[in-house]
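Posting for a labmate who doesn't have an account.
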Amino acid sequence: MGELRAGIVPVTPFQQNCTILFDEATRRGVVVDPGGDVETIRQVISENGLTIEGIWLTHGHLDHAGGAMELKDALDVDIVGPHAADEPLLSRIADQARTYGISGLANCTPDRYLTEGEKVSFGDHEFEVLHCPGHAPGHVVFYNRAASFAHVGDVLFSGFIGRTDLPGGDHATLIRSIKEKLLPLGDEIGFICGHGPGGRFGEERRNNPFLV
């Protein structure tokens, strides 16, 4: 098994962190949250000699899932996640995209939804699934215990937290998800989030104004 690596491809006008997680030795991996700009994502995959085994979704907002069906068709892989509570969001992506004036995004039908406690993997890299609602009802986090790493989507940001003023959002629920499911994993856990730079849970526990 090689080391777990991650590359970020900013996509859509929202500059969402589409993330490619891959094994350094085998060059096999998955795409997390392909929100759009699928040709750009495919170019990065090709230029880096990667073989993609699946698409993982943290939640159903258009900037995270809007390109998933197109990428699925191009790569002939399954879409896994998020939790089924986000099905209403996934079924309205095209309508939402039109309200923002964004073209080329499509509704998404995952091949499999995820639940708390499941595990997903590629190669020897195993991730635990944590259901962390608050930003979106079906939001999930992918946690790799061996690498002390989590992909937290839009639950937590460096110095900030996910929005809760969107349909299905709830501030108290989001804070509970962060404090009861993410921070107990340990201060040393590094994370990639859905927008902007990542960080470590310890830094957020000590300094994030929404958590202290």
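Reply:
Got it, the structure tokens are right above this. The longest strand covers residues 4-11.
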